[in-house]
């Protein structure tokens, strides 16, 4: 059927490639491909970072269509739980965000952050080791100097590959509130970190200073009605960034205009639909994620029920709005009661900015093709997909007769939420974090 | 997940077939809009309070809930519900009552004066201050009021707890008198006054009888549009949960 073929175009018959469960069964809190897509980093609630590397493509006649799989490359503990003695509060070690730096030499660099501290990690390989020291023997024991009669030059000999992660910079003590976003600038020299009320600009080389570029803290905290929810630098213009708020607005700022970017250059807000107004209107309009398109021409925002695409040149409304799970609109009160209404879903672009993806409940995630206007719902679960099986589109039944393969709204599992997903920068490979499992799906060739 | 409102209600699994008998047997009057709104307000205040017991409250969530509370109270002020209840219970001039709602909408000048800004003003510090004050507290109303006093004045930070205490306390007393409706002085009464149907807010716009697994707030979903006749199924509230709620409020 023609319809099926088009649906397949988006999902392109995604295969379940691999599913990884983290050892400690910790909830995955962030997923990010690096700029080439060779590496995939995940952060979890326990403060650990696990990096997967794509193996070289195997072209054998047995499996002509087999693409490189992702295998664990490095695991390290990025953040530890801390205690803030001033406030008598624990600081969670949960990794909120990971952002890769573009690769400039043999080593890989990434930023990882918890609520308070950003760290720059260097991940490097070691596959040779020096042998033949003069002052110590191969076990590392010191040799008796009087026994040394000959001097030799140590030589490098191959060893088993070892991947080391070392913290190169720690950017601490700059945030009173919880960091929700970090974003590397296109100049590759600076990056920003955003918390609920402030955004700071850092230089990678300087850890004891940062510039505050946005501050929305009111003089009187009782007047606080709006917080920053996400922020990102423009992919090409190093002076431009956007930040979103809990009131459903996006502000674009230009750092050239002033040191403190409290005045926005552009203000994106969609007028409210008065017919849809309820006590939950504000909560569901709160933006949980904002992402520039790769082209830099559009921004995508995620609020509770929709994904919106905005043209940077048009501030008064988005150019596209996609319903993620509108069937939840009538359940908002229950979702408010069980706190699900505060879940922060992320959204991602594919490499060509033609398809956008975001998560939902019941381990469902949704893809929207911006050109064909087709959308698909897929499920990330072990039970419903064998390895190499093609993912079957899912459907939620909103009322009336439920067909055989459909799921009714009332049967949805709200504890199974897909908040974090990532899309390979150039290929149709996606990573989906379902609680403590990571799923990687690849496009089926042909 | 917030399990506080989990009730041991029997739920029918909705498979597209409706139990006609159950429908007829369970028809009750839908909770009025005012009651629904009141329920939402109560729930929101409890949520704000609960978040103080966590390690460090999620600021975004707190702000959104507080905005919702403010919105409800503004609406209640506008349609006179607030004022009316206040007049009935205390018989005082309505102007005073309007002032009390300003606490949430705007901060009073009195609170702003004479403040110093500590580097890290936090709710935790204020909490300790408030606890110390409790012994000299002359309020006779329920401890539920005390806990929200902490939260209203220190939802995020309070710059100078001592000076704000007097104004805030008095105003919040008034606010919470309205929550307790007519006369009840105890938290138990607060909850018992609420219609049982609050706990079973399966009222749907379309009159669907399906019981959701998710919760009881479906009647509140109708806020944005006019409610058609809808029916409630006959479900009981779980009073054990009420006791649990009471315990938490009293202990704070």
TrEMBL record, chain A:
Q: Which residues form a coiled coil?
A: none
Does the entry feature the keyword Glycoprotein, yes or no? Answer: no
Q: Does the keyword Repeat apply?
A: yes
Which top-rank group of organisms is this from?
Eukaryota
**InterPro entries per record:** PP2A_PR55, PP2A_PR55_CS, WD40/YVTN_repeat-like_dom_sf, WD40_repeat_dom_sf, WD40_rpt
What is the protein name stated in its UniProt record?
Answer: Serine/threonine-protein phosphatase 2A 55 kDa regulatory subunit B
Q: Which family does it belong to?
A: Belongs to the phosphatase 2A regulatory subunit B family.
MF terms (GO), sorted A to Z:
protein phosphatase regulator activity
Key words, A-Z = Repeat, WD repeat
This entry carries the following GO cellular component terms, namely:
protein phosphatase type 2A complex
Automatic annotation (TrEMBL), chain B:
Residue ranges of every copy of the SERTA domain listed in the record? 33-80
What InterPro entries would the database entry show? E2F-SERTA_domain_protein (IPR052262), SERTA_dom (IPR009263)
Under Pfam families, the record lists: SERTA
Question: Which Gene Ontology CC terms are recorded?
Answer: nucleus
| Range of residues in the leader sequence | none
Q: What is this protein called?
A: Cell division cycle associated 4
Question: In which organism is this protein found?
Answer: Taeniopygia guttata
